[in-house]
Design a protein that fits this description.
The chain is an alpha/beta fold and 320 residues long. Helices cover 25% and strands 22% of the residues. The strands form four sheets. A six-stranded mixed β-sheet has the order 5-6-9-12-14-13. Strands 4-3-2-15-16 form a five-stranded mixed β-sheet, with no helix packed on it. The chain has a three-stranded antiparallel β-sheet with strand order 1-11-10.
Length: 320
């Protein structure tokens, strides 16, 4: 989509102003024992996104190292929430390669993790949309079917409850007539989401996770071109303003995302929008634009206050 400078500031000036003045800058630390005084009445979980697992570049070893780092935290997280782009990749690969990558992902988690895991789908987890390697729409596992089969899901979006919070894992990867994919929520899923929000007790706080962000400042540094801001439809989800209002109206306090391989934390309409870097950094080739390989720790206090921090796990890339 193309936005004029005037249109941009009219539409999201309040958002950027809020981020610059009100929210703290994204930071990270090497410490594993952060917030060790967390009350037993609160809880902790981890958001690890953009794993891009593959046999190459020691990616599987990197994911395993990240999982061990997570499990060494004190306090230990209650669960892991992934953020999509679990494999590298299914979009433009044949069935054999794509299936092998999902199996590799499951093996690494099975062998190196003891925590509950809730997976979210990313664009690289969609099979065959690139229509290469002889894959067509007639393939029985085309599109999101392979992901759902491998993850044992009836659909690529769902909800779960944990200690008084409701978590919505959403599918933000949609087909596009001009690109491989675009960011957004399809109509059927949005109907389900609205119904689930209506069923949720109003006082119950909630969180969402999408692969592609609804609101992020990570797109801004590279978006000013030829006197206007230009943000691709694959970089952010469509309908961000409407989604932010829907979340605010339904006591959704946290919106996690990935996709950008960069870290930010934006406060808007009383919601924390956080983009959690990448386990793979620069796709297992080192630091990406100053953001190292890592994951996010989210601590929820007994009063439902949110503490967010990005933690590198000390990975050394084999290629940079």
């Amino acid at each position: 989509m193309k936005l004029t400078r005037r249109g941009w500031f009219a539409g999201v000036g309040a958002l950027v102003g809020s981020w610059l003045s009100g929210s703290r800058a994204a930071t990270w630390t090497e410490e594993r024992s952060s917030n060790s005084s967390l009350s037993v009445d609160g809880f902790r979980f981890v958001h690890m996104t953009d794993l891009h697992i593959q046999p190459e570049l020691k990616a599987a070893q990197g994911v395993a190292a990240c999982l061990h780092h997570i499990q060494s935290l004190n306090p230990k997280p209650d669960f892991i929430l992934t953020g999509g782009d679990l494999i590298m990749d299914a979009l433009q690969q044949g069935e054999e390669r794509a299936s092998m990558l999902f199996d590799l992902l499951k093996k690494v988690f099975r062998d190196h993790n003891s925590l509950p895991v809730y997976h979210c789908m990313g664009n690289h987890d969609v099979f065959g949309w690139g229509k290469k390697q002889g894959v067509t729409e007639e393939h029985p596992k085309y599109g999101k079917k392979m992901y759902m089969e491998k993850m044992e899901l009836e659909r690529p979006y769902y909800a779960f409850d944990h200690k008084g919070w409701r978590f919505f894992v959403l599918d933000s990867v949609q087909p596009s007539e001009t690109e491989l994919y675009q960011g957004g929520i399809d109509g059927l899923q949005m109907d389900w989401f609205r119904q689930e929000l209506a069923r949720k007790p109003k006082e119950m706080p909630a969180a969402i996770v999408t692969h592609i962000p609804f609101i992020t400042v990570t797109v801004l540094p590279d978006s000013a071109k030829e006197g206007r801001f230009q943000i691709g439809s694959a970089s952010m989800c469509a309908g961000a303003q409407q989604m932010a209002q829907l979340l605010a109206d339904n006591n959704v306090k946290l919106a996690l995302s990935g996709h950008m391989h960069m870290v930010d934390e934006v406060s808007y309409r009383g919601i924390t929008f956080a983009c959690s870097g990448a386990v793979s950094g620069r796709w297992w080739k080192g630091v990406h634009k100053g953001f190292p390989e890592g994951y996010a720790i989210i601590d929820i206090s007994p009063a439902n206050q949110i503490s967010y921090q990005y933690i590198p796990f000390g990975w050394q890339a084999v290629e940079s």
